[in-house]
Specification:
CATH class: Alpha Beta
CATH superfamily: archaeoglobus fulgidus dsm 4304 superfamily
Strand order of the largest sheet: 3-4-7-6-5
Structural class: alpha+beta
CATH topology: archaeoglobus fulgidus dsm 4304 fold
Strand content: 15-25%
Radius of gyration: 15 Å
Order of helices and strands: EEHEHEEEEHH
Shape: globular
CATH architecture: 2-Layer Sandwich
Length: about 150
């Protein structure tokens, strides 16, 4: 549980000593990401994180955590569900159903491409769920995973 992970950042590499603990992704990845954001010459309009926002068991995933720390609009777009229940969305692109926990909508289950597995969208910071869904649909570029996170991977 104490294995380190190396991260490439512009001008070098950084190391994280925070162990892998399910549900605590931001504590492991945020320090390296904050270093990267500090090197930007402009502030992004919105950031899409490959992880959860409000659709997190603690209602504060990496998209919330870094969105608040950076004070920028942030969206969580995950490939898998951590919490909540949902019905399968319609099979066409743009099909969506709510992700529900404790009788509250915590996200959306969205098909960004027809006839593929959906993604799990949730608000991170300074964003409404309809805005987040709209942005992700515009970032699809014919793939299941939105272009920003697909290119970053």
């Amino acid at each position: 549980m104490t294995a380190s992970r190396w991260w490439s950042v512009k001008g070098g590499v950084t190391r994280t000593n925070f162990p892998y603990i399910p549900g605590l992704l931001s504590f492991r990845e945020a320090p390296a990401l904050l270093q990267v954001f500090a090197q930007l010459n402009c502030t992004p309009d919105v950031v899409v994180f490959d992880g959860q926002g409000l659709a997190h068991p603690r209602r504060f995933g990496i998209a919330c955590h870094l969105g608040v720390l950076l004070d920028i609009p942030a969206i969580g777009c995950a490939k898998s569900r951590l919490t909540g229940r949902y019905q399968e969305p319609p099979p066409m692109r743009g099909g969506q159903t709510p992700l529900i926990a404790d009788d509250t909508t915590i996200g959306a289950v969205l098909r960004t491409k027809g006839a593929t597995k959906p993604v799990f969208v949730s608000v991170g910071h300074k964003m409404t769920l309809p805005q987040a869904v709209d942005i992700l649909l515009h970032c699809g570029r014919g793939y299941r995973i939105p272009e920003p996170t697909r290119l970053a991977d």
